[in-house]
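Collaborator request, handled under Task 6.
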Amino acid sequence: MNEYELVSIIHPRLNADETTAAIANIQSQIEANGGEMLSTDVWGRRRLAYPINHLLEGTYVLMTFRLPPQGAPVLEALLRISEQVIRHLLVRGIIPFQGHDRRDRDRDDRDREDRDDRGRDRDERDDRDRDPMASAVPEADNPEMAEAEAASAAAD
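Structure tokens returned to the collaborator:
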């Protein structure tokens, strides 16, 4: 048996009881195909990132379950023709959530401030970022530099 994650968006015109019935229907289809439910997490009604069939919101539901490999295509076919589910995504394998807390986000922002536009550390830039003339003439061969050093030594 494989482990799966299913994220589905339930139609927004359904009330709370009908949404619960739609979720129970999906769970019963999983169990009818030889699956075992691990968890169901209803995220609630949320705004969609883009309109789907002229709808602007839907009820998001995340389900994790075990299902034989031959049951996945059957489940997807049922979800595809269901009028209650406007969109779904079935992924094999359970992806562990590794969320960031506020301190991690602040640390990431500080790291970003120490980088230039190309993602390199500001103090580790390569020679292309430096003045080409400064590296072209060695200091010993630069007569202006030698005169400036001699003048500063004489002033002391």
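The cover message to the collaborator said: "The chain has a mean pLDDT of 81. The chain has five helices and four strands. Please let us know whether this matches your experimental observations."
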